[in-house]
Amino acid sequence: MDLDELYRLLRGSHFQAISIVNTLRDPLVVLDEGFRVLSANPAFYTTFFTSRDETIGTAFADLGNGQWNIPELRLLLEQVIPRSTSVIDYEVRAAFPHIGLRTMLVSAQRLSHPDSGQRILLLTIVDATEKRQADDDKDILIGELNHRIKNLLAVTRAIARRTAVEGRSAEAYREDFLGRFDALSRSLAASTQQTEAELSRLVRAVMEPYLTRGVTLEGEEAITLLPRQAMSLGMILHELATNALKHGALSVSGGLLDISWCLADDGNGHPQVHLFWRESNGPKASPPEATGFGTRLIRFATEVDLKGQAELQYQPEGLVAELTFPR
Amino acid sequence: MSDTFPQRLPDDRVSVLVVEDEMIIALDVQMMLEDNGYRVLGPAGSVDGALRLLDELCPDVAVLDGNLRGRPIIPVARRLRSLEIPFVLSSAYDIFPFDGSEILEGAENIRKPVSEGRLLAALQRALS
């Protein structure tokens, strides 16, 4: 029996005919009761780069290089014949000749010839490789996003807990907390997981609330940072800025702050970012209490996270800081 | 235990290796532990960094993030097991669906966000 005959056979059975015709763009084979190929459609030959000669009369399990020779699949097909059950989307993941590693979904249904009573198996094979890959990619992406959200909540919680409360009003606490929270948001906005952040964009974004007449920002435009570097540097800049506003050059009128940055060789052929923070015309700078979260954050972020150094000099004219870290 | 580990630091505080790649969380955990009389080693933010630290120092116990910049904590857990150093996990993941994660079996996961009470209690249990 070939496909033309099959169509004739099915013409009387409208329901089945439609469901089969709908699958015809996918490879389709007709097997006899002994699982030998009676017929196959053109999509089968093109999909598997095979010919009629290699296919017709061959046992299904021997097709290609034997990818269909799966005991479990055979068992399922054997049940289709006597019990009139069906196999739907049985997944076969295997290396096929010419087309390589693929995920195929096999569906099978039994048909009976009304005259001869011959029972045949109709098999459709759908290549689900790309869809599976897309599903997997999506799952990974969702997983990463989920992880990032949880991490971000944990970070926010840590900031809320570490922002000082002793001897401070609720308003002062809220202001400090929101300052850090906003610096985190601005740092995140300057980069996403997929793209690199630009140093100049990051500095401008984080310093935006502090920009007054005395603040100058100057540096190379095209220095890119990894997202995690951007977040650390953003938090460092915020801590320096908030200190300058409370105790340093930005706490008095006429105080000056120059931030500049550049990329230089570290002496071993590796690029290194230098960021200079110079306060002047303000009150005399003195080291803050060493245990404060802000101070620790600056040190920690530079040394542990950026793998660099933070040099903080508390000078009579104001704080001078130099951050150095590998790009 | 200080007799068996000559590298052990010369003060009587219990030393905790902290392995965590999120800077602010690492700092938070470090401060929690120091506030409670522990000595912190690290924090290490990567698998390699943690292994390098373990080449030189021998903590009494460790707190491990499950995943460091996309890399599972497994090699660090394996090293700790071979050194017979107990550890607790602090992971946003409920399950550890990667190769070799059976090495994490038996270690308590205090989850994230890290609560100070849960962290300290888990360390006590790990050390006893």
UniProtKB/TrEMBL annotation, chain A:
Domain Signal transduction histidine kinase HWE region: 144-221
Range of residues in the leader sequence: none
Pfam (any one): PAS_4
SMART domains: HWE_HK
Catalytically driven reaction(s): ATP + protein L-histidine = ADP + protein N-phospho-L-histidine
Entry EC number(s): 2.7.13.3
InterPro entries: HATPase_C_sf, PAS, PAS-like_dom_sf, PAS_4, Sig_transdc_His_kinase_HWE
Keywords assigned: ATP-binding, Kinase, Nucleotide-binding, Phosphoprotein, Transferase
The keyword Mitochondrion belongs to this UniProt entry's keyword annotation: no
Keyword Amino-acid biosynthesis: no
UniProt xrefs under PANTHER family: ETHYLENE RESPONSE SENSOR PROTEIN, TWO-COMPONENT SYSTEM SENSOR PROTEIN
Protein's recorded name: histidine kinase
Source taxonomy: Bacteria, Pseudomonadati, Pseudomonadota, Alphaproteobacteria, Rhodobacterales
Automatic annotation (TrEMBL), chain B:
Coiled coil: none
Keywords attached to this entry: Phosphoprotein
Residues recorded as bearing 4-aspartylphosphate in the entry: D65
Domain Response regulatory: 15-127
Tree of life domain: Bacteria
Pfam families: Response_reg (PF00072)
Protein name: Response regulatory domain-containing protein
